[in-house]
Amino acid sequence: MQTTLCFERIFCVLIAFLNVLKNVLVVSSVRSRRSGGSIIASSSDNTPAAGLISSINNEQIGKHSAHLTDQLYQYILQHTREPEILQQLREETAALPGSQMQVSPDQAQFLAMLVQIMGAERCIEVGVFHGYSSLAVALVLPDWGRLVACERDERCLDIARKYYERAGVTHKVDVRHGLAMDSLQYLLDNGEGGSYDFAFLDADKRMYHQYYEMLLQLVRCNGLVVVDNILWYGRTANPLVADKRTQSLRDFNQFLLSDERVCISMVPIGDGMTLCRKR
Ligand SMILES: C[S@@+](CC[C@H](N)C(=O)[O-])C[C@H]1O[C@@H](n2cnc3c(N)ncnc32)[C@H](O)[C@@H]1O
């Protein structure tokens, strides 16, 4: 009897171990599906110098939704337009640390589409890195539009500024070097609450809730706050993962679900984005 119980316990421990191993492998396989591409053709578009991404062949693009196979994602990339200047920035960044942090070309195209649909003129980005997503937005803003770009790392901003310059959008981008909380507070203190159309949140994950509260004050009614990485490579949905960043994103997702101030839509693009439209 005791031997049977002992075997049962060993069996249960083994199953639990295998489950943990499976989940770890799922998370790491999603992360390791690095895909990239090269432009093979230019096409005219309402966005500048758009091109098509031909193949997945390198480590330039770090993210896609967990439910997509590599084949499906390659197909999406092959049907994504990426302005040439963004391609250049992506290629330069690919050789540098942190390249997986920037949004993928399909996400950038999606952000630019949202900005265009909204006719947005005043935008904010929290977390610029080398400027890939901010440039995608700045490119489609009208000439008199303004994007407040918040980033704490001056070296990242050097690269971002170089590409704003090359793309001829420097006059549209108001770079704020420093902690994003301070930059957002400055805008609020400056009486700019309710005056922005669009905000993109993509900085330190554990601060998302605080940034969100400030961005929600800064956008107008019917303005949009887009939050990146809400799937966190599948970790937020995995109850076995409980590190602080994951838990913080999970709590934030749960909070958004019942935040009556906004209408929400969780979109499985890239590493997952939640669209929050201010009521
Ligand atoms: C995920 S990356 C942004 C990627 C960028 N949105 C893109 O797609 O190209 C996050 C960036 O947020 C910046 N960041 C993190 N914490 C910050 C803070 N407290 N204030 C300002 N920037 C911060 C990091 O330095 C990093 O460059």
Verbal overview:
Residues 11-49 and 54-58 have low confidence and may be disordered. The protein has helices at residues 2-32, 70-78, 84-94, 105-118, 132-140, 154-167, 180-189, 208-218, 244-257, and strands at 39-43, 50-53, 122-126, 146-151, 173-177, 196-201, 219-228, 262-267, 273-278. The termini are far apart. The strands form 2 sheets. A 7-stranded mixed beta sheet has the order 5-4-3-6-7-9-8, with helices on both faces. It is α/β, with parallel strands linked by helices and 279 residues long. It contains 9 helices and 9 strands. The chain has a domain at 85-278: Vaccinia Virus protein VP39 (Rossmann fold). The protein is globular, with a radius of gyration of 20 Å. It binds S-adenosylmethionine. S-adenosylmethionine (SAM) binds at residues 101-103, 127-129, 132-133, 150-153, 156, 179-180, 202-204.
CATH architecture of the domain at 85-278: 3-Layer(aba) Sandwich
CATH class of the domain at 85-278: Alpha Beta
Oligomer kind: single chain
Q: State the helical fraction.
A: 40-55%
CATH superfamily of the domain at 85-278: Vaccinia Virus protein VP39
Tally of separate helices: 9
Strand content: 15-25%
Instruction: Return the CATH topology of the domain at 85-278.
Output: Rossmann fold
Q: List low-confidence stretches.
A: 11-49, 54-58
